[in-house]
Amino acid sequence: MSTSRADDADLSGVADALDGAMYVVTAAAGGRRGGCLVEFASQCSIDPPLFVTWLSPANRTYGIARDADHLTVHVLGREQRALAAHFGERTGDRVDKFAGVAWRPGTDGCPVLTDVRVWFTGRIERILPGGDHIGFVLSPVECADGDGTEGRPLRRRQVRGLRAGHASDEGVRDD
Q1: Residue 14: inside a domain, yes or no?
Q2: Is 135 left (phi over 0), alpha (psi -120 to 50) or beta?
Q3: Whole-angstrom Cα distance, residue 67 to residue 88?
Q4: How do residues 16-60 score in pLDDT, each as one tens digit?
Q5: Of 48, 98, 115, 126, which residue has the fewest beta carbons closer than 10 angstroms?
Q6: Rounded to two decimals, what is the model's pTM?
Q7: CATH at residue 58
Q8: What sign for the dihedral angle of Cα 163, 167, 171, 174?
């Protein structure tokens, strides 16, 4: 076990130990749609139920999310690494990420990936400053919690090696 002072700490070892779930977050606004692979997300309140997801301002999805009223958060299953790569390794600045992917328009046109069984759409309640990612606090308005046969979620360690679509993004955070 190694330790370091807080001002010198690199949280990558802690993040590896947490091995967070992977999500695809989608948005629609002004005739545009976007989606990106996200690791930073969590329920942040029980009553009222709230969830926060963190997006990088370096990517196109963030710009769309800033103009949107709702975001859809899709919980990827362990078998959906290819879908994670599709949304994590491409940038919406150059390709239509929704071409060749099964989806339908949901609340406010927000794309719902129909091959993902657990997802929710949330109204953006507030936007929080962060470090290199910005938090979107969501209040659920529509959800699909699967049929009880879902496997485990796709985890951070299972997408290791993906290259982010934007050169300015590190690792697999989002596109």
Answers
A1: no
A2: beta
A3: 21
A4: 666 678 999 999 999 999 999 998 999 999 999 999 999 999 989
A5: 48
A6: 0.83
A7: 2.30.110.10
A8: negative
